């Protein structure tokens, strides 16, 4: 992870061919190994601003916090159009003419599909107190993706990047002006990293009419991606295998729930299906790894590790790490640190963690900080939204305001229990904040972890039952709303 750049211009950027006009649409083809295009000013500045304002104010629009399909952290996405139907009606009214009159004719031609339609549209936000990144992934479910910037370039540093290979160093950023769109197919690895500031984007997914999908009902692999897998394309093989793996996990969860309800026969059938899917996922990952997918190599390493083949696991992780996969660097460093499957070598482990951190893996950066390397690794991890790093950095923040920002980011990035506990401590007394034991108690109750319960006991003596409930609302709702 490069330490925070001051400007998007200093990041490696996507190069484009000269402008061309296709069916009245201005495009610039990206110089990338996969089909991708810049569509300058797809929305006017006014339209982009209006879309963003409506998303923030329309009662039919809401930024959801349910788990994202890519990283399982809160999405902070606002549904605009779903399964062929408008959701945020006011936003759809602005987009309708742009989609039907300009985008659809263009995309049908560019992606050779006369039945292409808008399947889903959503707005994502990346605020300093919320999501900072969306890890590299494929939009396998869509024939074509169109991402429109709803922000001025000066509002943030970083943004959307295309990453042709699994090596994080191959990431190239698209500098988009407000209203500019970037358009790509199902086979382009891409992601978002916001180093600073706030970013809003509109994401539109197009599929043939017959494959229109509803939110989260994307567990089946669509034919265009399956065809790529059948041709032996490593990335597509990996995507198919990881879809099988997540279906296996979902089915196993359903089996557990069924067993809990006493439906033993149904549970058994689900367990069988989960085992079949897990086996198919394992075979798929092996095939994808053999075809050269570093993403799959990481998972094959996990499978080997879990089966007790530590040397096999270390070899897989090393190979994936050599190909620039940040989390594989960390997994391999762990082997070196513990002498698992390789000879123990702490100096080499540190070198691999540094490589992982510079490939964007926040946990590598945090591990380096924990191992006593420079404090800048703590700042690096916190900047990416690493929850524990945000909480640790909040302890030495220069102001209560900065500490609050970091703790809100930790809550949004999966660290609720520990962050709420730290918030409780902050409200017991911090420079610039009037101590508020009642607000502190509310946060401790929300946290529910052992430390927070001890703090509650210290505040009020034996903890009343209601305050032990981690879902109990804070005691002063009005005040909480101001902060949250
Ligand atoms: O926010 C963006 O620009 C892109 C988000 C994205 O890649 C996705 O939602 O799949
Ligand atoms: Fe995407």
Write a structural description.
The protein is α+β, with helices and mostly antiparallel strands and 484 residues long. 48% of the residues lie in helices and 16% in strands. It folds into four domains: 8-218, Jelly Rolls, CATH 2.60.120; 219-292; 293-383, Tetratricopeptide repeat domain (Serine Threonine Protein Phosphatase 5, Tetratricopeptide repeat); 384-483. It has helices spanning 45-57, 89-110, 223-230, 234-260, 264-290, 294-306, 310-322, 326-338, 346-358, 362-370, 376-383, 387-395, 400-412, 416-428, 437-447, 450-460, 465-468, 477-483, and strands at 20-22, 25-29, 36-39, 63-64, 77-82, 85-86, 116-126, 133-137, 144-149, 156-162, 172-173, 181-185, 190-197, 199-208. Helix 6 packs antiparallel against helix 7 (310-322) and helix 14 (416-428) runs antiparallel to helix 15 (437-447). The longest helix has 27 residues, at 234-260. The radius of gyration is 24 Å and the shape is globular. The model is unreliable at 466-484 (pLDDT under 50). Bound molecules: 2-oxoglutaric acid and fe (ii) ion (FE2). The site of fe (ii) ion has 4 residues, from loops. Belongs to the sel-1 family. Belongs to the iron/ascorbate-dependent oxidoreductase family. This is Fe2OG dioxygenase domain-containing protein.
């Amino acid at each position: 992870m490069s330490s925070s750049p001051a400007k998007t211009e200093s990041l490696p950027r996507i190069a484009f061919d000269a402008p061309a006009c296709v069916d009245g649409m201005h495009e610039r083809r990206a110089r990338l190994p996969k089909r991708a295009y810049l569509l300058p000013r797809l929305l006017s500045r006014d339209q982009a601003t209006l879309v963003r304002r409506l998303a923030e104010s329309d009662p039919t629009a809401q930024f959801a916090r349910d788990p994202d399909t890519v990283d399982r952290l809160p999405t902070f996405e606002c549904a605009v159009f779903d399964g062929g139907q408008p959701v945020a009606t006011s936003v759809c009214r602005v987009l309708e003419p742009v989609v039907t009159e300009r985008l659809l004719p263009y995309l049908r031609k560019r992606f050779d599909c006369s039945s292409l339609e808008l399947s889903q549209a959503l707005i994502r936000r990346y605020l300093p107190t919320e999501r900072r990144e969306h890890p590299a992934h494929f939009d396998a479910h869509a024939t074509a993706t169109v991402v429109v910037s709803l922000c001025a370039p000066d509002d943030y540093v970083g943004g959307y990047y295309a990453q042709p290979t699994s090596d994080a160093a191959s990431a190239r950023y698209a500098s988009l002006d407000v209203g500019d769109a970037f358009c790509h197919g199902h086979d382009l690895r891409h992601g978002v990293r916001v180093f600073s500031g706030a970013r809003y984007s509109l994401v539109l997914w197009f599929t043939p009419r017959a494959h229109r999908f509803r939110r989260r009902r994307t567990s089946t692999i669509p034919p265009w991606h399956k065809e790529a897998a059948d041709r032996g394309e490593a990335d597509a093989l990996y995507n198919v295998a990881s879809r099988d793996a997540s279906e296996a996990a979902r089915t196993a969860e359903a089996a557990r729930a069924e067993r809990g309800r006493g439906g033993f026969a149904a549970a058994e059938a689900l367990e069988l299906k989960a085992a079949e899917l897990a086996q198919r996922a394992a075979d798929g990952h092996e095939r994808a790894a053999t075809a050269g997918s570093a993403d799959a190599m990481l998972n094959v390493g996990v499978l080997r590790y879990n089966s007790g083949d530590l040397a096999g696991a270390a070899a897989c992780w090393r190979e994936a790490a050599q190909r620039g996969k940040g989390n594989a660097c960390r997994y391999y460093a762990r082997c070196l640190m513990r002498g698992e499957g390789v000879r123990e070598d702490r100096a080499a482990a540190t070198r691999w963690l540094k490589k992982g951190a510079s490939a964007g893996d926040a946990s590598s950066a945090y591990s380096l900080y924990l191992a006593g390397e420079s404090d800048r690794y703590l700042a690096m991890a916190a900047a990416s939204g690493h929850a524990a790093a945000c909480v640790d950095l909040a302890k030495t923040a220069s102001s209560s305001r900065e500490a609050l920002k970091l703790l809100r980011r930790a809550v949004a990035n999966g660290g609720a229990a520990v962050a709420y506990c730290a918030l409780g401590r902050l409200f017991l007394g911090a420079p610039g904040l009037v101590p508020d034991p009642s607000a502190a108690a509310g946060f401790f109750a929300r946290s529910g972890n052992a430390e927070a319960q001890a703090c509650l006991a210290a505040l009020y003596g034996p903890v009343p039952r209601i305050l032990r409930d981690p879902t109990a609302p804070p005691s002063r709702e009005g005040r909480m709303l101001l902060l949250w």
